[in-house]
Design a protein that fits this description.
The protein is mainly α and 439 residues long. 49% of the residues lie in helices and 11% in strands. α5 crosses α10. Belongs to the class V-like SAM-binding methyltransferase superfamily. SETD4 family.
Length: 439
């Protein structure tokens, strides 16, 4: 008797673990029931996808049937998409058309999201707005204490992103004020900075690419955004391939898979071959074991390893700048990038070899000494970055203990830095073998 109970218990435990790994179905939750009803009214046919909570990725969509390569994942009718056309046909349209200088398509969408969120129950888009994240983890939203823990090149981009949203807010104040006739409340309280930041992050992290013809009432920035309710619950994986686009015949946005997916597993799409720095900056997450990931080396770090007394140093830096060899200097899973090694070879040129710099940019070898020095310097930079990353990981552990409120954001940077460390250790191993080969 005892035995059979033990087996049943084990079976139950296995089943529970399986469902935990597969994802917990959330389609019974009220917000999703309302969203599905709302989509159905706009012509969306119920597919095999169900909203679910997954252990590694959080909220996503699971499939209730096995998917084969070539299967249609989702087809979302045009009526369900939120575009600048939606904005113009709303009460904001007349104000946007009159406003000079013209607003950007991005600002028009931000304004619409803020206005609809403010409208609450009265908004026809409420079922969609209710399932949108309340907060985001794009780098622009992180605290300065957390941003300081990012690798130098990414920290710079995070600060630029923050400033860009601040500038958008500053330059849009007059336009927001012009909308006062539409609201009983003061527009200054509705269209405040945190509302704009939320709307900007919603568009930046969730829109699909959809080209729209240019309209005179908008500035010349490309009008390529569409928010796609339900479809935007699909998470990113660098290891899947999909075909996506607007189908003119069916007037729907469609995603077809080129990968297989087992029943009850999470369905992934690919946002593009992005490294983790780009994913964290633009989307607010990190992909584990991302094959596209790299660790960036700033030009300052690179130049620290070459003597300021080198008479040709200025000329070398100028050559690298002119030929775009001071950007995208990286270590990857396969070691230092060709760009990084080329930059190091140019900087390592002896006075007697300097005239050969063009040959190096074309990938030719100038001398064994130059090759050895470049590889040796790459190994030193890699070691420096390993130590720096380990030091930051220690700081993060300390901060996680001291600052409870920053824990979720610190965990993100910790994931990024841990992935960086794995890449750097792999690169150090590759360089060790290459250096052994040259000695």
């Amino acid at each position: 008797m005892k035995k059979s109970r033990g087996r049943t218990g084990r079976k139950r435990r296995r089943k529970h673990l399986k469902s935990f790994m597969d994802g917990v179905n959330c389609s019974h939750e009220l917000e999703y029931i309302k969203l599905k009803k709302w989509l159905k009214e706009r012509g969306f046919e119920d597919s095999n996808l169900r909203p679910a909570e997954f252990w590694g990725t959080g909220r996503g969509l699971m499939t209730t049937k096995a998917l084969q390569a070539g299967d249609l994942i989702i087809s979302l009718p045009e009526k369900c998409l939120l575009t600048t056309g939606t904005v113009l046909s709303s009460c904001l349209g007349g104000h946007i058309v009159k406003w000079k200088p013209p607003v950007s398509p991005l600002l028009a969408l931000c304004t619409f999201l803020i206005a609809e969120k403010h409208a609450g129950e009265k908004s026809p888009w409420k079922p969609y707005l209710d399932v949108l994240p309340k907060t985001y983890t794009c780098l622009a939203c992180l605290e300065p204490d957390v941003i300081n823990l990012l690798p130098k090149p990414l920290k710079k981009k995070a600060q630029e992103q923050k400033m860009m949203i601040q500038e958008l807010f500053r330059s849009s104040k007059a336009f927001f004020s012009s909308l006062q006739p539409l609201f009983a409340e003061n527009t200054g309280t509705i269209f405040n900075f945190s509302a704009l930041e939320w709307a900007w992050c919603t568009i930046n992290t969730r829109t699909i690419y959809m080209k729209h013809p240019h309209r005179e009432c908008f500035s010349l920035e490309p009008d390529v955004y569409a928010l796609a309710p339900y479809l935007d619950l699909l998470n990113h994986s660098p290891n899947v391939q999909v075909k996506a686009g607007f189908n003119e015949e069916t007037r729907s946005y469609e995603i077809w898979t080129n990968s297989r997916c087992r029943k009850y597993q999470e369905v992934f799409i690919c946002y593009g071959p992005h490294d983790n720095h780009r994913l964290l900056l633009e989307y607010g997450f990190v992909a584990m074991d991302n094959p596209h990931s790299s660790v960036y080396v700033s030009a300052d770090t690179l130049l620290k390893y070459f003597s300021p007394l080198d008479k040709q140093r200025k000329a070398k830096v100028s050559i690298l700048k002119d030929h775009d060899f001071l950007e995208n200097l990286t270590f990857g899973w396969e070691g230092p990038s060709w760009t990084l090694l080329t930059a190091l070879k140019v900087l390592a040129l002896g006075a007697d070899e300097f005239a050969c710099w063009r040959r190096i940019l074309l990938g030719e070898v100038t001398s064994a000494r130059n090759e050895e020095q470049a590889l040796g310097t790459a190994a030193k930079i890699c070691q420096f970055l390993i130590e720096e990353t380990q030091h930051v990981l220690l700081q993060i552990s300390q901060l996680k203990r001291d600052k409870e409120n920053l824990k979720p954001h610190l965990a993100l940077v910790e994931m990024l830095r841990s992935e960086d460390l794995k890449i750097l250790q792999k690169s150090a191993e590759i360089l060790g073998n290459l250096n052994l080969g040259t000695t």
